[in-house]
Amino acid sequence: MKFAEEIVVEEFLPTFRSMLAEDLRERGLTQSEVADALGISQSAVSKYAHGEVAQNDRIRDDERVSRLVDEISEGLATGSMSQVQALVEVEVLIRRLEDHDLIAQLHEESMPELKGHGGDFNIHDPEDELRATERVLTSMRRAIRIVEQTSGFSSLIPAVGSNLCECLPDADAIDDVAGIPGRIFDVKGRATIPAEPEFGVSEHVASILLSARENGANARAALNIRYDPDIISRLDALGYETAEFDATYENLGETLGDAFAENPDAAILYHTGSYGIEPITYILGETAEETAEIARKIV
Questions:
Q1: Domain termination site, one of 92, 126, 160
Q2: Cβ atoms < 10 Å from Cβ of 101
Q3: Which residue ranges does the record assign to the HTH cro/C1-type domain (predicted)?
Q4: Residues 150 and 278 in one domain
Q5: Residues 137 and 165 sit within 8 Å (Cβ to Cβ)
Q6: pLDDT, tens digit only, all 299 positions of the chain
Q7: Do both 13 and 82 map to the same domain?
Q8: Is 111 helix (H, G, I), strand (E, B) or coil?
Q9: Which domain holds residue 281?
Q10: Cα–Cα distance between 18 and 48 in angstroms, integer?
Q11: Among positive and negative, which fits the CA dihedral 25, 30, 35, 37?
Q12: Are the CB atoms for 222 and 282 separated by under 8 Å?
């Protein structure tokens, strides 16, 4: 009797780890850095990277496996993906391959009695909360790197600071929205990110995002920058739909509802300020990365 988990341990994991070790070494990481990234010993890295561990060619040649190896290697090498996110993504792929797919086929071949039945185990939900949470945080980290690497981004930061947010697919409260604790500030001409993204730390921009979604926007992310007529003109010229709303922020849902009633396709929201209220522009997008990329275009 042989379990599908044995196929994972004996066939999939050695192959996958070998591919990851090879890819990370090709990206310039040292043997020690690869060991830290994968949570294994340096001697194990050496064996994986030098082909001393047997690999399954069918697993190695599977496009989905190769694609995930590339995605995780890039994420671990750049720091844009956490080890938790990498683990979750691998687990999801394993469960998919167990469900009448490659691992199920290998399982059936090792135990012919299972033919027609092997691998039918839907243990993990690919869209579970942990995976969704880690995906949002990964997107936020990538967006932060865009902000940090964009020369002149600090010129877009308002006096009150900027924040960058992305929410879970079914978000209905601020705790479902990830943001940057303490906001993004201009420190001596550089956009400064004070801490790693967390959920529930951005009340203001998160409220704008949630209200926009309640009024029909498909956005899952938002970024606030300073208001300037030239900025709005540049965004218009790039093809982004804009809408103005009341600067007082009172009855925000109703106010944004009026803005979207005038332009349902608005991806840029702005107000021109009021007494004691700084003019602000809000960029909406499907991901935090997208909003950061839009901002990069107008610097």
A1: 126
A2: 15
A3: 20-48
A4: yes
A5: no
A6: 788 889 999 999 999 999 999 999 999 999 999 999 998 999 999 888 788 899 999 999 999 999 999 999 999 999 999 999 999 999 999 988 988 789 888 988 888 776 654 444 343 445 567 778 989 999 999 999 999 999 999 999 999 999 999 999 999 999 999 999 999 999 999 999 999 999 999 999 999 999 999 999 999 999 999 999 999 999 999 999 999 999 888 889 999 999 999 999 999 999 999 989 999 999 999 999 999 999 999 99
A7: yes
A8: coil
A9: 132-297
A10: 4
A11: negative
A12: yes
Provide the number of structural domains found in the chain.
2
Q: Are 34 and 25 in contact (CB under 8 A)?
A: yes
Same domain, yes or no, for 74 and 168? no
With vertex at residue 57, the alpha carbon angle to CA 52 and CA 60, rounded to the nearest 5 degrees, is: 90
Do 160 and 214 share a domain, yes or no? yes
Residues 272, 198 share a domain: yes
Pairing of the two strands 242-244 and 268-271: parallel
Is the domain of 169 the same as that of 86?
no
Decide which of 126, 144, 163 is a domain's last residue.
126
Do residue 280 and residue 230 come from a single domain? Answer: yes
Q: Which residue shows structure tokens 């039918």?
A: 120
* Per-residue b or e along 53-82, where b marks 16 or more CB atoms closer than 10 Å to that residue's CB: eebbeebeebeebeebbeebbebbbeebbb
The CATH number of the domain holding residue 261 is: 3.40.225.10
268 phi and psi angles, rounded to 5 deg: -125, 120
